[in-house]
Amino acid sequence: MTQRGRQLGVLTRPARRPARRPAKKAVEPVSAGTDGHPIRVEFGRRWISPKTAARLKPGSVLELDADVDRPVDVYADGRLLARGTPMAIEGKLCVRVDSQGVKNR
Q1: How confident is the model over 61-76, as pLDDT tens digits?
Q2: Whole-angstrom Cα distance, residue 49 to residue 53?
Q3: Using CA atoms, how far apart are residues 46 and 84, in angstroms rounded to an integer?
Q4: Residue 94 to residue 29: CA distance in whole angstroms
Q5: N or C: which end of the chain has fewer CB within 10 A?
Q6: Are 42 and 80 in contact (CB under 8 A)?
Q7: Which residues sit opposite 100 in a β-bridge?
């Protein structure tokens, strides 16, 4: 209790510092580069007939078999490499890798 607090009959304590929160880790995009393996990111699938494909036009919407909040699959050389969460960084579509070395579904 401080001297002023005693005079007023009020318990006072030194101000507490707010708890320090750990700094957020910056997202560091992996450069695509020019060498290496091409990757494919699959948001979902939909099988359509050739007739339906021929009727597609700008503005057509294809419903996929995946939920919006489901992780996307990342393939390299036709093999499932990882699963991740779609996101955008500086206006570019990206995938944050959540799990690696996963087995095919």
Answers
A1: 999 898 888 899 999 8
A2: 6
A3: 20
A4: 8
A5: C
A6: no
A7: 82
Q: For the chain, what are the domain ranges?
A: 77-105
Angle at 3 between CA 13 and CA 18, to 5 degrees: 20
φ, ψ for residue 95, nearest 5 deg: -130, 125
What residues does 82 pair with on adjacent strands?
74, 100
Q: How far apart are CA 23 and CA 41, in angstroms?
A: 30
Q: Is 29 helix (H, G, I), strand (E, B) or coil?
A: coil
104 vs 74, 75, 83, CA distance in Å?
11, 10, 10
* Region 35-59 average pLDDT: 90
Alpha helices in 2-82 (DSSP H): 3-8, 50-55
Specify the length of the chain in residues: 105
pTM: 0.56
The stretch 23-45 carries a mean pLDDT of 70
The chain-wide mean pLDDT, for the chain, equals 76
